[in-house]
Amino acid sequence: MRRPLDEPALRALARGCAVLGTGGGGDPRIGLLLALQSLEEVGPTELVDLDDLPDDALIMPCGMVGAPTVHIEKIENGGEGAVLREHLERVTGREVAALMPAEIGGSNGLLPLCWAGRMGLPVVDADGMGRAFPLIPQVTMHLAGIDPNPGVMTDERGNVLVFRAVSGEWMERLERSAAVEFGGAGAATEYPMTVAQARDATVLGTFTLAIRIGDALTSAVGDPIAALLAVTCGYPLMSGKVTDVERRTTKGFVRGSVVIEGLGDDAGRLLRLEIQNENLVALEQGTVLASVPDLITVLDSETADAIATERVRYGQRVTVIAMPCAPIWRSEFGLRMAGPRAFGYDFDYVPVEELAGASA
Amino acid sequence: MPVLDYRLGIDVGGTNTDAVILDRSDQVLAKAKVPTTPDVTSGIVAALDAVISSPAVDAARITHAMLGTTHATNAVLERRRLHRVAVIRIGAPATLGVRPMFEWPADLTAMVSAGAVVVRGGIEFDGRDLSPFDGDAVARFLATVAGRCDGVAITSVFAPVSARHELLAAEIVKRELGEVHVSLSHEVGSVGLLERENATILNAALVGVAGDVARALDRALAAHSLEPVTFFAQNDGTLMALDHALRYPVLTIGSGPANSIRGAAFLTGRTDALVADVGGTSTDVGVLVNGFPRESSQGVEIGGIRTNFRMPDLVTIALGGGTVLSGPDGDGNGRGGNDAVRLGPESVGYRLLDEALIFGGRTPTLTDAAVAIGRTRLGDPALTRPRRGLLEAAARAADVRLAEAIDRVKTARGDLTLIAVGGGSVLIPDELPGVSEVLRPDHFDAANAIGAAIASVSGQVDRIFHFGPGGRKAALDEASAEARDHAVAAGADPDTVQVVELEEIPLAYLTSPAVRIRAKAAGALGGLHAPAPTG
Questions:
Q1: Where are the beta strands (DSSP E) in A303-347?
Q2: Which of chain B's residues have a Cβ under 8 Å away from the Cβ of A314?
Q3: Rounded to whole angstroms, how far apart are CA atoms B160 and B187?
Q4: What are the residues whose beta carbons fall under 8 Å from the beta carbon of B365, sequence distance 6 or more?
Q5: Cβ atoms within 10 A of the Cβ of B416, count?
Q6: Best of A69, A76, A135, A174 to disrupt the B interface by mutation (most B CBs within 10 Å)?
Q7: Is there a contact between B66 and B455 (Cβ–Cβ < 8 Å)?
Q8: pTM, whole model, 2 decimals?
Q9: Topology, domain A3-206
Q10: Residue A332 CA from chain centroid, whole number
Q11: In chain B, which residues touch A (CB < 8 A)?
Q12: How many angstroms away from the CA of B409 is the closest CA of chain A?
């Protein structure tokens, strides 16, 4: 189904992308402003289902690689997507039919909207994560065996790099270095694929989900967090107050932990969150309540807005929720790429549905 | 600068305008409290007249005057007397996706903007040129706004890393338009292009308002044949010399809470504590760290515009001495049920003396509640008896909200001292969860004006540093030295300047070692202390 994204949809989407960002991925605000100005200047970007496009149509996954701090200062010009498309088409000899965010969570969920809108292309209702992850190969296309090549990267000046990497991991290394040279961040595409391939290689319906999350938070009658959980099939882990925050930065990644003390019905409980840019593991008395690749998000108990990991601080009243990830992440390969052990934790993944069932 | 004798401090709050006069040894000679007026200025004049006419004061000895005012905030909220600003952003071909003032309310844009342009140039996070600076484009734009603008706001991408393109653009403005006001973003805000740009445009728009206030204060002082050196309080609890305030009026926004926190520190001699400033309509709970208000890392909205300049980190609740109470009176034994009581957010404000029950009025207020439960003696306590159930329940409910506000503003567990100031601080109980002791200093009701009068002068740095051969320590030293230099340039006595805040914020998702450093140095007003002996 084709759907033009108007201002209320974009605003809902931004709130939803923050929730799906699981604490990381950058603030969706700049992406929202880029999309709103594009809406005003060229009209709405169209959201389409894979079924609206021919099987052999080419999809360009895209987003920014680099530091969110750079992105709030050196804002995009809105034309980066057109440069990526031009070079992807030149190298592959094929026409791009639609854009897709590599990552729905955080700022990257909204960026492709202004790029696509300004080219008159649609965005497909899918993404490569269903959440946010830090690394380029941590996408479902990688799990499905899609070739990351050719990768294309550009900056606002029009510098272009085309990558032929021997693996997704090498694509990550090369693009990360290029991002530094570009001034800390660059626009990038990898894992180009056809619509037929995308059916099994992406997380479908994530835009619709993000918009529904935003709508639930904005217009729920009664408890917005309950409405959010209904939309995402999520579980409340605990409501309480942040009593300890510990953060450090190593090799460009923020690591740390947050302790939340239960309030109200959860009084007497203590929950500990392990963080590496995103919220990765929720523990209570040494027992795992939820872990990657399932989604763990910290919400402001009053406003129900998602709180980014760098903004969590002592005294905040928060509700921690967990949501099941896309099933493809639960495969052996998926867990090897983005399970607890991929982030250095010494335990095996158990789906949040089972953990929640055990504790209930 | 004259040798210090008496100091006049004035602070404008939402309900009242306060004035104090301190002598050389910081003793309060006189204080006055008058209602804040809609135009603000006449309230300032009234407070000034009241405090100067005190018999304890020889007004001729006033050598310094410090003013904390809400003129700037009000001008934005009420869209009054704002200057027209030509807006220059330096950052193309980046940043074109979100134009300047994109999110501004249309009426404010129409009033303030004389036109906007995005020219090529700007800085990368590592200090390189984003693209070469296009001075010709700046000149061409200025030709289109010449004669139509009162000021120019210039914002370059990553100006907090290097201001060189902003400075080049400022030179062109001077060449093309002459002595028109220029606001440069690196002097106003920190990292975050759109918020810093907004603050810079607002600053340029407020220059006329600052001039009006300065002239009004001058006239009021001249009417008493006084010519003290004048200073404006800014939002970090320190002072700006008048000429600085005329160039950076946006920094006066939020000075009230900062003054109260500084005043609380001065009155108690404490350097680290919580401060609750209870006014007529609201209570600000802030944190005193190392003698200064802790600052918020998040942006603030002013009149619907997001900015990112430094403000005291506060938790504000709509509870004050004039807060209107409603709800059932319960069974007369205080069992009204907290849930049934409604606290505000309306307030009778300065009409407390007419409307509160204890003064024979008909409106139950939080001040009545404090009297009813014996926290303070004021008016006629007997008049509270008929509403006792409501008042007791309201006092309990207010304590709960206050305790939660106090907890929210803390950054770590552990009990802290709470300093209670402001005209409504009798509302605060002697015991609160998370509080080890409650201090109620003398002159608590004028802490804000005292805070303005005793404030020091500061300099700040907030930008991104790259670790060179000296590593992290060299970067911290460089930031500290810059902050000291800024403080001295703003009028601080070099012998008393100290670094009072130093914070590192690492940049995520980036492999090269870069860090944002915030440093602040502060010292006494130059000329206030005898020079250090030499030789």
A1: 317-323
A2: 410-413
A3: 9
A4: B321, B322, B323, B324, B325, B347, B348, B352, B355, B356, B357
A5: 18
A6: A69
A7: yes
A8: 0.88
A9: CV3147-like fold (3.40.1610)
A10: 21
A11: 91-99, 102-103, 122, 124-126, 128, 130-131, 157-158, 191-194, 298, 407-413, 506-512, 516
A12: 7
3-class state of residue A280 by DSSP:
strand
pLDDT digits (tens, 9 = 90+) for B164-182: 999 999 999 999 999 999 9
Residues of chain A under the 70 pLDDT cut? 249-252, 358-360
Mean pLDDT for chain B? 88
Burial group, residue B412, by CB count within 10 angstroms (0-12, 13-18, 19+): exposed
Pick B97's closest partner by Cβ from A68, A75, A180. A75
Where in the sequence of chain A do the CATH 2.40.390.10 domains occur? Answer: 233-359
Closest by Cα among B63, B67, B27 to B47: B67
Could you tell me if A101 and A61 are in contact, meaning their C-beta atoms sit under 8 angstroms apart?
yes
- To the nearest whole Å, the CA of B311 is away from the closest chain A CA by 17
SS3 content of chain B, % helix, strand, coil (to 5): 35, 25, 35
- Show contacts of B210-215: CB within 8 Å, 24+ apart: B210/B71, B210/B72, B210/B245, B210/B246, B210/B249, B210/B252, B211/B246, B212/B41, B212/B71, B212/B81, B213/B40, B213/B41, B213/B67, B213/B69, B213/B71, B214/B242, B214/B245, B214/B246
Please choose, from the candidates A1, A35, A54, A176, the residue with its C-alpha nearest in 3D space to the C-alpha of residue A115: A35
* Residue B182 host element (H or E): strand B181-184
A261 — phi, psi (to 5°)?
Answer: -100, 130
Confidence (pLDDT) at B330: 57
- How many Cα atoms within 13 Å fall on the side-chain side of residue B100? 29
Q: Where in chain A is the domain with CATH 3.40.1610.10?
A: 3-206
| Cα–Cα distance, B230 to B239 (Å, whole number) | 10
β-partners of residue A7 are none
Q: What token pair was written down for B464? A: 């991104």
pLDDT tens figures, B396-431: 999 999 998 898 888 777 899 999 999 889 999 999
Number of C-alpha atoms within 13 angstroms, CB side, residue B207? 21
Q: Are A306 and A288 in contact (CB under 8 A)?
A: no
pLDDT (mean) for B73-96 = 93
Half-sphere exposure of B210 (CA within 13 A, CB side): 28
Cis upstream peptide for A150 (omega within 30°):
yes
Overall CATH class of domain A233-359: mainly beta
For A:79-98, CB contacts with B below 8 A are: 79
Cα–Cα distance for residue pair A108/A102, rounded to 1 Å: 7
